[in-house]
Each structure stands twice: as structure tokens, then as C-alpha cells.
From TrEMBL:
The chain crosses the membrane at residues 375-395. InterPro entries: Prenyltrans, Terpenoid_cyclase/PrenylTrfase. Gene3D superfamilies: 1.50.10.20. It comes from Streptomyces prasinosporus. The lineage of its organism: Bacteria, Bacillati, Actinomycetota, Actinomycetes, Kitasatosporales. This is Terpene cyclase/mutase family protein.
Amino acid sequence: MNVRRSAVVLAAVAVIGAAAPAAAAPSPSPSRPALPSALYGDGDPQYDGVWRQSLALLAQHTVGVEPPKPAVDWLAGQQCADGSFAPYRADTTKACDAKTTVDTNQTAAAVQALAALGGHDDVTEKAVGWLKSVQNEDGGWGYTAGGASDANSTSVVIGALAAVGEKPAGVEKDGASPYDALLKLALPCEGDGAGAFAFQPDEKGELVANADATAAGVLGSLGKGLAAGPGKGAKAQAGCERAETPEQAAANGAAHLADALAKDGHLTSALAGAEDQPDYGNTADAVVALAAQGAAEPARESLAWLEENAAGWAAQSGPAAYAQLILAAHATGADPRDFGGTDLVRKLTATGPAAAGATPQAKEKEKKDESDSGFGVWWFVGVCLVAGVGIGFLISGRAKRQQP
């Protein structure tokens, strides 16, 4: 589920391309249009505007914070006439056309957020209608309409269907449901990656375990969304059993994640050149998946690792990262207002429109505190350059990886 990776550091691309000193931030571009004041985060929203806004609103909802109305209105206003959402539309007075890059992930995330907040049935109904219209014959969804089904996209759409009261098992195309699509992407219990989910079959048609897809696949197979709470009545499972039902596939996937997390408490990046780097976002997703399945102990252990280590990552990554950590805390019953000494709710709120009673000066001070934290964006870029981490690690959003 990773449009959610460091969209803030998209601005670093110019620095890397020019081989500028890592410690030097670029001069502001006078031609860059101002971002909407209702948008969470100040990074380039081209690939993740709707996604990060949706996660931010959803995370605030889980902790009882009422998001500012302009932020909610901005999200609803991003919808195209056919019900779909693009990552970012700078000018919503201009109708969407064939050049508008709508996708299933932004659309499904927006549905989940707006359904949770309530009062936007017209928007969510149109969005779900569009999602149903682009369902693949195998029952799943790809990142874009017509793209091959993948575990992440299928799962986030399942969460959207559940959010509006639909039964995902009953949403079929040619007799196949989303759960059928996920079962085809679940690895068997024999061989490498037993019990995990693949993102998609590889070029040879083989399934290769993918931790990001596994976290998504567990939630999807359980029929739950991004803001899933602790599993009720489910039991943690050791090992893998033949998956003939979505429930068993979820149990297998959770067992695989628990094994992967057991050594260090976190997952590592699968991207070339970054294999020794912790994957904070994927670890947070895994915590949600484990908690939703009922594997409370491994979920809490990895949450503890995030509490100790993820504050700097969230500070440089922005609102989606804060939201992911809040959702991980929510899934495990932890307090996101005291997350290893960090108030995630306050940090997330500070990245968006000023709440009622908050002054622009207070919000600006919050941003300055984060930029002075010692783990700013440009320090992070410098580390990546020195370590030889490729540009793909910096802009590793799913929108860049999942084109059909």
C-alpha cells in the first residue's frame, strides 16, 4: 500500500539529478503553483494527494478528531464526474478527460475516508459504482482500470466496498469475487514465502512473496479496510495451512508476516540498494494486518519498535506516514498521543489546515520544530546519496511501480 512512501522527498529528485551537495536544500521555485490550503502536507501531491488526504482524515477519525471542513470538502471535490479519483487535480473546474490519470487506489481510499466521516453518500456511491465498472474478470482490480489485478489494489477496493456496507463476496465479475482474485495471489504452503501474498504473478507467471502485498492481502481477505481495529475471535496461527478460504489465506499471510518480523521487529526494504534499510511504512501496515487477524503479540512487538524508531521517518515523510502510525496504534489499542513520546495526532494535525482555534503562527512553529529535528528531508537525502541508495527508493510510491 505504498503511494504512502516519502512523497515529500519527490522534491529531492532535482538535487540528486544535479548531484548537488546533500546538505543543501534547493531554492524555492518561483514557478511552482501554491498548494491548496486545505491539503495535508506540503510535498508535491502529483502522485499521492488524494491518498495522503484520505489517510489523514481516516486517522483523525479513528482518534475522535473532527477534521477541518475545508480538508474534507477538498477531498470530495477531487472526484471526477464518472466517480473516479485522480491523485491530484489542481483545477477541479476543468472536467476530467482521457488524460486524467485516475486510479483505483486513490478512489478506494477516498471512499473509505468519506464513508467513515459520513455525509457524502452521493460521492461514495458514485465512486463505488466506478470501481465496480472497472472490476477485472478474475474478480480483482489493478492500479489503473484494465490493469492486471494485484493484491494491494484489490484489497484497498475491498475495504472501500465494506466501508459503504457492500459485501465484497457478492461483488462479482463473470462469477469471480475479489476474494477469488486474492486467493489466486496467495502462495502455497510449500517453498519460499509460504503463506505470503504476491503483488502480481511475475513475468514467468510465478508468485513471489511480497511483504507489502501480504499486509494488504491479509486485510483484504478479512474484508477490512485501512482503519481496521483489533481482530475479534480470530486466533494467531503458527505455520501455514492450505488456503481454500479467504480467512485461511489471511491467517497464512499473518503467520508469514509474524515470522518476517520476529528477528528485528521490522521489515526491510525490498528495493535494490536499500535492502538493509528498515521499511517503516510497510512495518506499520504489517502491524495493522496482524492486529486485524488477531495476532496481538507480534503486532505489539513491532509497534514497540515503531515507537522507538519511526518518529524521524514520519517527520520527513509527512501526513501519510503519521496517519499510518496512528492507524497502527489504533489497530493495537495503543495511544497515538503518546507514541514513544511523540503526539502523532498533534503532528498530523499540524500538517493540514489550521483547526478551529489554532493560529497560523502555532502551525508554522510546529513545522519549524519538525524541520529542526535533525531528521529533515535533506539530511535523509544526504544519507541516501552517501549510501548509494537509488532514486527509486526516494520516489517509491506505488503509482511509480504499478503501471500495467
